[in-house]
Amino acid sequence: MKFFKFVIIGFIVLNYIALGCATAPSQFSEYPSQPLSRFDRELFARALLHQQKGQIEPAIVLWNKFLQKNPNSFAARNNLGLLYYANDDVTQAVYHFDQGFKLRPDAVQLIMRLARVLKIRASILEENREYDEAIMDLRRVAKLSPAKEQEDVDRQIEALEDRIFAQVKKSNSMEEYQGFLKKYPHSPGNSDEARLWIENRLQVNKMNN
What we know:
about 210 residues; 2 domains; about 80% helix; Serine Threonine Protein Phosphatase 5, Tetratricopeptide repeat; mainly alpha
């Protein structure tokens, strides 16, 4: 377990470097993407100044205030995603990158950031043995990733499905087998084994009755 935690920490550090330091202006969206009132322009400038100085908490407060009136601001979503990531709040980083992706599904840099933070959250969920949730994040990563990287992600998903199915087999429960099939009807090897187990159990029950 200690070794696994070390791997997770290393993974997060490497991805932090890949995403870029929170104080690096080049990572931020420095210009609003829509016309703004004078008050909102000033609020935007204040939030940007705080984050460029590395003042994460004040910047987060101001960007959230800005979003109250401008919820469709791509710049604010991107910047908040970077700030929350720098503040170790991966869930909020995912949320704001995801909102930015909905606004601009062709924004390549943001897509890369979203995929990276999803990978990190999946690793944390895996460590906590929340395999179903980790698989959901990895499936999103696969959709966002280039074709050459999708195979590696698919292997990660299959490995987690194997862990889940190992727990199902220990339970020896019809409900658990049926639940697995409902969630993972196409899990390589596991789904066919689950169907066979259910079929055999139904036949045994029928004979006993």
